[in-house]
Amino acid sequence: MATTSDFRIGMVIRFNGELHRIEEYIHRTPGNLRAFVQAKLRNLKNGRLTETRFRSGEEVEEVRVEQREFQYLYNDGASFQFMDKESYEQMPVDGKAIGEPARFLKEGETVQLHLVGLDIVLIEVPFKVDLKVIETVPGVKGDTATGAEKPATVETGAMVNVPLFINEGDTIRVDTRSGKYLERVN
Asked: What sign has the CA pseudo-torsion 62, 63, 64, 68?
């Protein structure tokens, strides 16, 4: 057990029977009232952010989270298959657990899985990935002057809006959090 004085950003606790990660917290001592800790907690199951007050010194259950490197193997339609880089054990992961960055996962990519026992509580996909453009309309000389964009399909099948000067076969860097084009890679 831990107390509110042990709080730190990123700490995982069991609150109301579910796992939550502490996003922010502040210790408050208002005038002649009792001190308390106000914390923003993210539910690791559904992603909701809630704000909660704890009495100063209140005990909470801290949950130990194990972080391990996994390699993305393939998508079998129902789930994404990952392999533990140490034990070579394969683990299926539901696409909903990965979220939006799943569109940009390519085979062989390394990700960080945060586990509580055998339950996955968080998946860290690299923030930037380099992907090859497999389909887009051809660029025309002089297209670099405007900030216009066109849709392009990358090797994972995802659609990304890219500048007009990007052609098929070019490699681009994409932000997996927002799905936006960052730059062309040589």
From this structure: negative
Structure tokens, 168: 């098929």
**Structural domain count of the chain:** 3
pLDDT digits (tens, 9 = 90+) for 14-70: 999 998 989 999 999 988 889 999 999 988 877 789 999 999 989 999 999 898 999
Residue 62, strand partner residues: 13
Find the radius of gyration of the CA atoms of the chain: 22
| The two three-digit tokens of residue 140, written as one number | 């025309």
For 84-147, give the DSSP string.
Answer: ETTT--EEEE-HHHH-GGGGG--TT-EEEEEEETTEEEEEE--SEEEEEEEEEPPP-TTTTSS-
Neighbours of 172 (CB within 10 A): 20
Answer whether 107's CB lies under 8 Å from 82's CB: no
Strand partners, 124: 112
Last residue of some domain: 12, 32, 62? 62
pTM, two decimal places? 0.70
